[in-house]
Amino acid sequence: MLSSYTFTSISLALALAASLAAPSSFAGAIHDANLFTTNTLPANDDGSTGPVNMGFTANINGADFTQTYVNNNGNITFSNTLGTYTPSAIDNGSAGPIIAPFFADVWTFGNSGLVQYGQSTIDGHAAFGVNWIGVNYYADNTGSKQNSFQLILIARPDIGVGDFDIQFNYDQIQWETGDASGGSNGLGGTSALAGYWTSATSHDTLTGSLVNGALIDGGPNALISNSVNSTVLGQYSFQVRNGVVVTNDVPEPGSLALMGLALLAGLGFTARKKRVS
User: Total domain count for the chain?
Assistant: First the structure.
């Protein structure tokens, strides 16, 4: 017969595992969608901003950047604009430094939200963020499927000159592909990619990138149901130190749950497309 102490320990362990491992149907990871709304990129297809000020200096592979280009298709770049709409591997560095929370064919006409961006502060640190809230896929004007995600760069000069953090936040991912990338109804074809490239030795993509059905809500690698270096589902955090992304190896919630259970019980450029009006 189990002692009351043993029974209580097992119950606590199971409760911890359930609270940490249970996926959320709506992550709610976006850090205040009212932030970073100072500027709006007008409705467009494959458009970009000119160079915009971030409000701080970011060291990327030994080069200092104070400006970035916000690209409609779910990414920012630092060397030039990027109008490519079908995602492809970014580990060859052909786009230069790129940070892509959701590289896919975003279409902001019709019943779609618009891309917004600007400067703010996060926990007392200067920050630059971009919101893709309620955006459509090419070329759906109805908003039958919409994605909401966010990118934040957070200055960390308190740690080192040019150091900063990257944060991907996801609330809803209902589509993965535009029609011009082989998709149908927002699915299939060449699916979205999420990741970054800061140098030949500092680049990575999230598990499920370019895999049909993987990153969308309910998928095996659903962005809203997982995390990296964060206890918030749908949030993926990375640290850039001395120009490169460092690896912290912080377990995801599912792994943390297993660790807690064990502790208590034992006391991963295409041609232009035809426009649609």
Answer: 1
